[in-house]
Amino acid sequence: MNRIRRALVAALVICIARPLAALAAWNKDAFGAKTAGDALKSLGIGNAAPSKEVTIDAPEIAENGAVVPIEITSNLPGTTALIVVIDNNPFPLIARFDFKENALPFVKVNVKMGETSEVRVIAEAGGKHYVATREVKVTIGGCGG
Amino acid sequence: MAGPMKMRATLGQGFTEVRVLMTHPMETGQRKDSDGKLVPMHFIQNLTVKLNGKTVVDAQISQAVSRNPVFSFRLKGGAKGDKIEVAWLDNQGDSNSTESAVA
User: Fold this and answer.
1) Is A99 on the interface with B (CB under 8 A)?
2) In chain A, N or C terminus with fewer CB closer than 10 Å?
3) Spatial separation of the C-alpha atoms in residues A92 and A90, rounded to whole Å
4) Quick one: which of A89, A79, A75 has its CA closest to A34?
5) What SS3 string covers A52-114?
6) pLDDT tens track for B42-84
7) Which of B73, B66, B70 is nearest to B43 (CA)?
8) CB B77 to CB A102 under 8 A?
9) Which of the residues A38, A109, A140, A143 would you substitute to probe the B interface, choosing the one with the greatest number of B C-beta atoms within 10 Å?
10) DSSP classification of residue A27
């Protein structure tokens, strides 16, 4: 009886634990924040020091806000993460990339922009944060339809 | 049903460039359909890049990444034949992955 019960409990634990393990982490609070400040606070990022070693390559004027190509890089040694924030988007946090030892802190991606905004990239290196900012002007927004 | 993915991994100067394309609507939840109803949010939340079975990039993304996302990543070193795997998971529990060898 005891053995059966133990087997059942074990099976139950496996059933519950499996899907939980399969679900990767997604920071709901940070991504749901409506201001850049709240998003960064949820990510535990306080004061980020401006740095020329963090670069953002983006068009000065984006004609179509639905597809704005951005290329981000950090030349800071020991960069472990890059975070992208677009201040004037309804949900400013766009992405967080975590890099393990075999990846270079570089990403190229297309993003949507609702209107003209500052694009901020924050690099995490040695437990400290560094930021680069760049304004992108948008002629036609890409959030509605 | 998850749409197709395309990936190309090529040797650059001192790094391997991984370019991956995912087929996904990336609905923001703010767009209205032709009947004026809001289209529910449907977007990729997690993205993982693996090199020879080891995770090298772990990304969390929002609905503000453009439709049919295209990403480029750069990996240190790398050699011809190294196995690259990219997998994604969206907010509705859908997922897909693709793998290819460095050329």
Assistant:
1) yes
2) N
3) 6
4) A89
5) CCEEEECCCEEEECCCEEEEEEECCCCEEEEEEEECCCCCCEEEEEEECCCEEEEEEEEECCC
6) 999 999 999 999 999 999 999 999 999 999 999 998 899 999 9
7) B66
8) yes
9) A109
10) -
ipTM for the assembly: 0.95
Domains located in chain A, CATH noted = 26-140 (2.60.40.2470)
CATH topology of domain B5-101: Immunoglobulin-like (2.60.40)
Q: Which residues of B touch A (CB under 8 A)?
A: 15, 28, 30-32, 39, 45-46, 48-49, 51, 54-67, 69-77, 89
* Stretches in chain A below the pLDDT threshold 50: 18-23, 145
Q: Which residues pair with B70 in a beta bridge?
A: B21
Q: Does A81 touch chain B (CB under 8 A)?
A: no
Rg (CA), chain A: 20
Predicted structure pTM score: 0.88
Instruction: Parse chain B into domains and list their residue ranges.
Output: 5-101
